[in-house]
Amino acid sequence: MNPAEPQVITIMPRSNRERRDQYESHKLVKRLRRLAGQAIADFDMIGEGDKVMACLSGGKDSYAMLDILLHLRSRAPVAFDIVAVNLDQKQPGFPEHVLPEYLTALGVPFHIENQDTYSIVKRVIPEGKTMCSLCSRLRRGVLYRVAQELGATRIALGHHRDDILQTFFLNLFYGGKLKSMPPKLVSDDGRNVVIRPLAYCEERDLEAYAELRRFPIIPCTLCGSQENLKRKEVKAMLREWEKRHPGRVESLFTGLQNVIPTHLLDRELVDFSAIRATGTPVPDGDTAFDVE
Ligand code: SF4
């Protein structure tokens, strides 16, 4: 082409499909930001002057959490800091350049903690058994220490709604407890406040978000651990329920936010021996199942 010739740029009309995809992506981004903002507000997760340590594993959820937190901070009514932290557990094949490059490009302060928990787990857990539980415990301990060293006042983890529900059923099926992962809690060592800003977000939305934002995902299973089969089973159970009974999972999650201790059997929560007829009607007093 003659360089003197004016270049004609043809703008192709966008197809309906492209337009629809763009619209859906826009809705997805807005929904995730709204839900994270809502969870942060509902559970009073972050306040003025907090320093939030965003734990980044290289998985889709933690990337999404950091991304959403950075956006929310730019519009938040309170000022807070964010520092991203990754624990390099020295798993064979861990691409240690990926996160520093990503975080540098993002312009967010970060810290990479190098600690070979992989060797400990390999030494302690017999071959072929799942290593995740010990691995996570060791990781937690290191992260709690790092939070203190960095002066963080909040430790943010990327667990989402489906993690919370799965944990609830794992505790119920295998531990005989009504217990899950709270969106905000004090850590085991009593020195840190842990928050889960994605507590209201659905995993499938986070999967779509990771694809949309093209996060450089690092698979957790590089270590070669067996997957936690019980968690996998519970996940499949919830997916199947949702397929066969749309809305059921949402109802379960709503249920976790509507606990009625008087209608359970926990004598620690209710002093049943103190129960007396008061003569005053109690709405739903003896209704066992509210929606027939
Ligand atoms: S898959 Fe490997 S790195 Fe991930 S939690 Fe389990 S043992 Fe740890």
Strand portion: 5-15%
Main beta sheet: 6 strands, mixed
Distance between the termini: 75 Å
The CATH superfamily of the domain at 35-227 is HUPs
Percent helix range: 40-55%
How many helices? 9
Any idea what the CATH architecture of the domain at 35-227 is? 3-Layer(aba) Sandwich
Q: Summarize the helix and strand pattern as letters.
A: HEHEHEHHEHEEHHH
- Quick one: CATH class of the domain at 35-227? Alpha Beta
What's the CATH topology label of the domain at 35-227? Rossmann fold
- Can you list the strand order of the major beta sheet? 3-2-1-4-6-5
Low-confidence stretches: none
What structural class should be given to the helix and strand makeup?
Answer: alpha/beta
By DSSP, the count of extended strands is 6
Rounded mean pLDDT is 91
Shape: globular
What's the alpha carbon Rg, rounded to whole Å? 23 Å
Q: What small molecules accompany the polymer chains?
A: iron/sulfur cluster
